[in-house]
Design brief:
By secondary structure, the protein is α/β, with parallel strands linked by helices. The chain has helices at residues 14-25, 28-38, 57-63, 77-90, 126-136, 154-163, 168-185, 189-197, and strands at 47-51, 69-74, 95-98, 111-117, 137-148, 205-209, 212-218. It binds S-adenosylmethionine (SAM).
Length: 228
């Protein structure tokens, strides 16, 4: 029997998950800004799914902005435990479950809004993950994927690294990590469009900014055989 690994490379468990959570806690502003931007797209009391939330920082920031039913789904047992603990400590309500983005443990049309950040390039079955987003999204619901784009220019990368305010050694390390690891596993805008075209979403809008992109997917009524 063959099985498909759910993540690319090393699983983010144990010490790796702890290191990631500690490092990205310094960058909480990223989650605050994203939550403030996306909250405008979420209906009041909406059911929100974050796919691959890691330590749960975005879910926590979103929960602070309104009354939503928030769920996080992550493949990493360490991150699920950590996100549950972080939510309790932050005094917010959110449910964190363990599972694969390509095989979600949810009913059809269970969510009004979906978000996935800095994780899509890690999925081993990206097309299946997008199709699953469509299945669990209600008609008229919106899913947003934010990630690095492989077609970022050298100038974009330089600008990003300059903005980090790093010392000389860290700058060299970060530049190497970007070019040799992160951007290599990332997708170009054209690759994302080609993947989306293989799913019931059919099409998407992609906004690019610097080294990243934001993919907007809408589940239309006629995707499901109904009328538009
Ligand atoms: C770089 S972390 C990003 C975490 C968080 N979204 C953030 O912005 O900090 C990538 C996340 O993807 C998760 N992941 C990788 N493959 C997955 C899969 N197939 N299904 C669900 N989660 C997955 C990892 O466990 C990890 O939490």
């Amino acid at each position: 029997m063959t099985t498909t690994k759910a993540y690319k490379g090393i699983a983010m468990e144990g010490p790796i998950a702890a290191w990631y959570a500690k490092t990205t806690l310094k960058d909480l502003q990223r989650h605050k800004l994203m939550a403030a931007q996306l909250v405008k797209k979420i209906p009041a009391h909406g059911r929100v799914l974050e796919v691959a939330p890691g330590p749960g920082y975005f879910c926590i920031e979103l929960a602070k902005l309104g009354h939503y039913q928030i769920t996080g789904l992550d493949i990493s047992k360490s991150f699920v435990a950590m996100a549950r603990k972080n939510a309790v400590e932050a005094g917010i309500q959110a449910e964190f479950r363990q599972g694969d983005a390509a095989n979600m443990p949810f009913e059809n049309q269970a969510f009004d809004f979906m978000f996935c950040q800095a994780a899509f390039k890690n999925f081993t079955q990206p097309v299946k993950a997008i199709a699953e987003m469509h299945r669990v999204l209600r008609p008229g619901g919106v899913a947003v994927i934010v990630d690095l784009r492989r077609d970022a220019s050298q100038a974009d990368i330089d600008q990003e690294i300059k903005g980090m305010g790093l010392g000389r050694i860290n700058e060299i390390l970060v530049r190497w990590t970007f070019k040799q690891m992160l951007l290599k596993s990332a997708y170009s805008v054209d690759e994302i469009r080609a993947m989306v075209s293989q799913t019931p979403f059919g099409r998407c809008r992609i906004d690019t900014s610097g080294i990243g992109f934001m993919v907007w997917l809408e589940s239309r009524a006629f995707d499901r055989g109904g009328c538009a």
